[in-house]
Q: What sequence folds into this?
């Protein structure tokens, strides 16, 4: 089959690779009908995430038609149209039984789990196409994908709903939704959201659906700010205003009740801390540029909540621990428990309560995936979300 | 949940902390590892006590043959593509709780080990502890490899318990082996 593969920093290409096969009883093989490039794929593209190997297939946002099922899989049948969660979870362990599938103890293969156990204290959960730290699973930017534990994760989509309307159930819609839930929004709250990429936009939509009175979105790409505004946010361009001053002024000195960091480890900008971070990461002294995380902690009101859906991978210094403690903050983080949200979020889509397609700027055949990566990275203003069509 | 440290439950709830760096084994390389497994204790014991089940999750085991009561012959993949022949004798078998074994005549490698199953007092499943100790196979491989292997039981105990947990909880052993489970491009492209 054809698949988008990683060969090093800024080096991805569509190659011919072997077809995946059913190897375990709960597996399914999916013929991929639509897949997307995620902002977090750019962290792989930019070589910020350790544990990548030359030849890995990328892609964790995908959906398609069930082509084949393993013998223990009684919940999916050949021909079902499904969206696949990016988190691979067994559905049976302590974490899955406690509604924490993103903490699944079983999906990371035993020989792959050592690295993240050393890096993070306990092994990370498996995920599609996102380095060998999360299992070394092949991703979905391909014609076919093997889906482990496919009787627990994937959700069957009813007829008459286009791929584009449901594709983002795989990651960015539930990720934006969980980011808003983690922000502990109460009716009428003011929520500030850093980053108007796909996750930021879904966090805006979700915060409003969850009762936020006011959403303030921060970015510097005019097109992305326009999208945020069209979704009901007030917007701040950080190239034009000082973000913290603006937030303090807009909230008359109280500050936002919640702040969401939908940027993560590659934050841009020209603040002194970020320039130091950029120099350090370029010589591999540190790994993460954490300017946005620091700014959320400084900007949020006393007793407020900081929610972090943005991906971080390693270490960051100058964490404002004084502000974090003295202001009595709550910090909530984590990979998304996608499986928990799918039935309810699919219902919101079917009822027309959310537009899940307005962020799509480009639709490309899989063969042009490398061009998609390059432009999504270099022209973030115009390329807001890329959908790849493998067939 | 309140918990009286003087009650008999305390012993069950808080097994003595085991310092992994000071595990007492008869042999040079030893390790112990614990895993909470979300399955009934008896089910786990029953699966493990039928040693013909063990190759289903022990990656290095090529074949197991039962020689007699408690006595078995193992063919195990060793370093550098060599095959190691082990002969093992069960020395203790407490149904539902503990199995211990040691090497027997004819074994290439001297070894011992045990596995214990305990109910978690707070309903989180079964606490499983695996101990492995052996003399690293040296000889032709030389001292350098033997030194590397000092840490090997630790890796082995950790990975075997993870795979046992996957198999018992999820019904299968997670894998991303190329090419079937996880296709990938050739490095030379």
A:
């Amino acid at each position: 089959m054809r698949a988008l593969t990683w060969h090093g920093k800024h080096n991805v290409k569509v190659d011919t690779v072997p077809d995946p096969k059913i190897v375990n009883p709960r597996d399914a093989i999916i013929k991929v009908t639509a897949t997307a490039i995620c902002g977090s794929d750019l962290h792989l593209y930019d070589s910020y995430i350790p544990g990548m190997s030359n030849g890995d297939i990328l892609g964790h946002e995908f959906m398609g038609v069930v082509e084949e099922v393993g013998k223990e899989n009684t919940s999916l049948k050949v021909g079902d149209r499904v969206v696949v969660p990016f988190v691979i979870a067994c559905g049976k362990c302590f974490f899955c039984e406690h509604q924490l599938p993103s903490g699944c103890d079983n999906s990371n293969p035993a020989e792959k789990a050592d690295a993240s156990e050393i890096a993070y204290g306990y092994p990370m959960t498996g995920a599609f196409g996102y380095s060998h730290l999360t299992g070394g699973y092949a991703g979905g930017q391909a014609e076919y994908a093997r889906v482990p534990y496919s009787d627990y994760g994937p959700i069957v989509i009813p007829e008459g709903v286009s791929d584009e309307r449901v594709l983002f159930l795989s990651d960015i819609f539930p990720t934006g939704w969980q980011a808003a839930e983690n922000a502990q929004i109460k009716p009428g709250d003011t929520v500030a959201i850093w980053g108007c990429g796909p996750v930021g936009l879904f966090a805006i939509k979700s915060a409003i659906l969850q009762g936020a009175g006011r959403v303030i979105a921060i970015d510097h790409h005019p097109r992305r700010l326009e999208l945020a505004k069209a979704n009901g946010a007030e917007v701040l361009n950080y190239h034009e205003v000082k973000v913290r001053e603006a937030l303090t002024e807009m909230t008359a000195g109280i500050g936002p009740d919640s702040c969401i960091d939908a940027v993560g480890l590659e934050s841009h900008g020209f603040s002194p801390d970020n320039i130091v971070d950029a120099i350090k990461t370029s010589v591999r002294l540190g790994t993460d540029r954490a300017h946005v995380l620091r700014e959320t902690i400084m900007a949020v009101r006393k007793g407020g909540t900081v929610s972090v859906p943005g991906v971080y991978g390693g270490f960051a210094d100058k964490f404002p621990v004084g502000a974090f403690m003295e202001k009595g903050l709550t910090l909530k983080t984590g990979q998304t428990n996608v499986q928990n949200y799918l039935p309810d979020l699919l219902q919101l889509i079917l009822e027309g309560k959310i537009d899940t397609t307005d962020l799509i700027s480009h639709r490309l055949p899989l063969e042009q995936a490398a061009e998609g990566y390059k432009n999504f990275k270099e022209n973030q203003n115009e390329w807001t979300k890329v959908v790849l069509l493998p067939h | 949940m309140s918990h009286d440290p003087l009650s008999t439950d305390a012993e069950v709830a808080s097994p003595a902390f085991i310092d992994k760096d000071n595990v007492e084994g008869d042999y040079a390389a030893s390790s112990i590892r614990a895993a909470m497994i979300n399955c009934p204790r008896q089910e786990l014991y029953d699966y493990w006590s039928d040693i013909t089940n063990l190759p289903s999750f022990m990656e290095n085991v090529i074949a197991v043959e039962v020689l007699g009561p408690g006595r078995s012959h193992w063919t195990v993949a060793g370093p550098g593509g060599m095959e190691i022949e082990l002969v093992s004798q069960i020395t203790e078998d407490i149904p539902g709780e503990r199995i211990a074994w040691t090497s027997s005549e004819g074994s290439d490698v001297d070894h011992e080990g045990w596995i214990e199953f305990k109910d978690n007092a707070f309903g989180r499943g079964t606490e499983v502890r695996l101990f492995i100790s052996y003399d690293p196979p040296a000889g032709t491989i030389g001292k350098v490899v033997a030194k590397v292997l000092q840490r090997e039981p630790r890796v082995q105990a950790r990975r075997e318990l993870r795979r046992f947990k996957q198999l018992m909880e999820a019904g299968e052993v997670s894998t991303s082996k190329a090419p079937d489970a996880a296709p990938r491009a050739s490095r030379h492209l």
Remarks:
- Residues 26-170 of chain B form a domain with the Alpha-D-Glucose-1,6-Bisphosphate; Chain A, domain 4 fold (CATH 3.30.530.20).
- The first strand of chain B starts at residue 29 and ends at 37.
- Chain B touches chain A through 33 residues (CB under 8 Å).
- The first helix of chain B runs from residue 9 to 13.
